[in-house]
Recover the amino acids of this structure.
């Protein structure tokens, strides 16, 4: 009899221990786990929020609008991969800055001036077929650079930089890559730029 009950006791003990082990595992699994996820690259290690350009020793984008500036127009040029930005710190043509180049090098920069004739213009563009748009422009060493955006019926949408010589002839058209155009959505800014002077040379250039 003793030899009969001894294996039975061991088996019962094993069943009891197994049940205890399952209960313990169930209680452990119900405990909330602490996340081990790390902040995204380029984020603050404490708050997880993105760092500003230039953090971690990275060079800031040379074409990006500075603090306090608002982007009026920006895109990537399809033929070269270079970019253009037109930024403003206020709602006047005098407080406007144009930059063209790459994220590491500005190749052409034009800054607004309060002296004499306003540096920047905004010319409305009207075409047949419910098509129209606008062009921000300025002159540099006798050449006019017009940043234009046109849209209309049948999904017409084009934008770029038109280069106009001193005689008023369009000599180059640097088109923006599709879907790369960025424009201000501020109604106050749009109303303000509509008060800027227009440029007859741009109006005649058939953008």
């Amino acid at each position: 009899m003793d030899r009969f009950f001894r294996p039975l006791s061991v088996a019962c003990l094993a069943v009891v221990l197994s049940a205890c082990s399952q209960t313990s595992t169930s209680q452990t699994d119900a405990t909330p786990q602490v996340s081990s996820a790390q902040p995204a690259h380029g984020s603050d290690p404490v708050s997880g929020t993105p760092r500003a350009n230039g953090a971690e020793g990275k060079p800031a984008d040379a074409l990006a609008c500075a603090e306090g500036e608002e982007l009026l127009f920006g895109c990537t040029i399809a033929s070269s991969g270079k970019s253009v930005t037109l930024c403003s710190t206020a709602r006047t043509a005098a407080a406007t800055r144009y930059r063209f180049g790459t994220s590491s090098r500005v190749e052409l920069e034009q800054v607004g001036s309060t002296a004499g004739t306003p540096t920047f213009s905004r010319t409305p563009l009207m075409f047949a077929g419910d098509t129209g748009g606008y062009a921000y422009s300025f002159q540099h060493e006798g050449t006019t650079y017009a940043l234009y955006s046109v849209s209309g019926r049948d999904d017409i949408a084009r934008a770029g930089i038109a280069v106009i010589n001193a005689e008023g002839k369009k000599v180059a058209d640097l088109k923006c890559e599709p879907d790369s155009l960025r424009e201000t959505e501020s109604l106050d800014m749009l109303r303000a730029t509509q008060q800027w002077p227009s440029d007859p040379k741009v109006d005649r250039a058939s953008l």
Notes: Residues 1-55 have pLDDT under 50 and may be disordered. The first helix runs from residue 2 to 29. Residues 167 and 201 are 9 Å apart (CA to CA). The two ends are 107 Å apart (CA to CA).
